[in-house]
């Protein structure tokens, strides 16, 4: 039994949270989720290990049929879902029955969602899913899963979820830190900081291109590494490397966006604004650590809410 | 030139001949990058990049400057190779 992808939408892919350099499943690229926070939240809600692979759906999400009862949650952009006429919202726990079909409307904010299934999922062939493909449920259930299944046995959803206000701080800002390179003149960063850029397009999971005032700088002739979050100049305009960016590039590299801002970059859509703010590495690492603590506190809050719900169910 | 390439990567950039030498040493395992905090090591014609988890370094090494910690490990290693080019 499995999930059936009735309609693959624009791009539906089974993806790991972080880049996997070695994988048991050959010929598939697992370069990590573009928004790495959302799949962890969805996994946490359904009782999975936070790094369990999820379905990453970009642009127009797919339509999924469930062939056996299971527990799901999705996180990411503000995509409203629907199952048998019932509204489904992001960042909540839902019980799906055999035959249920989950579809989504267009997002009002964000460009991707991540769907987690209790017990995990796997694909037998390509992780880039097409209409008609099946996704296997791994059923790697733990005692927590059993309790969540029991808790959800008579209801479609729980009464609580992760509120938008909990995530505002990390998703809604248009400001992106950039760690400077020592060989790039300060004037380049001054130009970058005083200008605002508009996202023109995303090459699926490869790079974000922006429009705005040009930056007049040509670095030395060098083959640079393609780094997640790397900011490069292409025709004097910044492009930002996403997860599937080339491993190396001859484009001029002017700095790199730290990991703690990459999840919100992964939700940018055409027309979104981007402003850069330079930061030195010590401040960036302080922010990295603050973000790590914040994510852990959010996980603890989810654990608390689930355990409270379980206690309520037992009483 | 060695620099912090974002918050999770340290990159060393040099002439192609130097990087070629470092890569050769790395491939022959003469350049031992067996530090527990350094994960992937990625080469281009002009660079070698070391990936690390800054939070892990900060917590385990009780430092607020994980980049300096990683640089203090890789720089002497790279110097020893590039001096022998």
Automatic annotation (TrEMBL), chain A:
The domain of life is Bacteria
> Any idea where the Carboxyltransferase domain is?
31-294
One GO molecular-function entry: hydrolase activity
* SMART domains attached to this UniProt entry: AHS2
- Protein's UniProt keywords contain ATP-binding: yes
Instruction: Please give the Pfam families that the UniProt record associates with this protein.
Output: CT_A_B
* Gene3D superfamilies associated with the record: Cyclophilin-like
Record's keyword terms, sorted:
ATP-binding, Hydrolase, Nucleotide-binding
Keyword Coiled coil, does the record have it?
A: no
Under what name is this protein listed?
A: Allophanate hydrolase subunit 2
UniProt lineage: Bacteria, Bacillati, Bacillota, Bacilli, Bacillales
Automatic annotation (TrEMBL), chain B:
- Which domain of life does this protein belong to? Bacteria
This chain belongs to which protein, by name?
Answer: DUF3298 domain-containing protein
Record organism = Jeotgalicoccus aerolatus
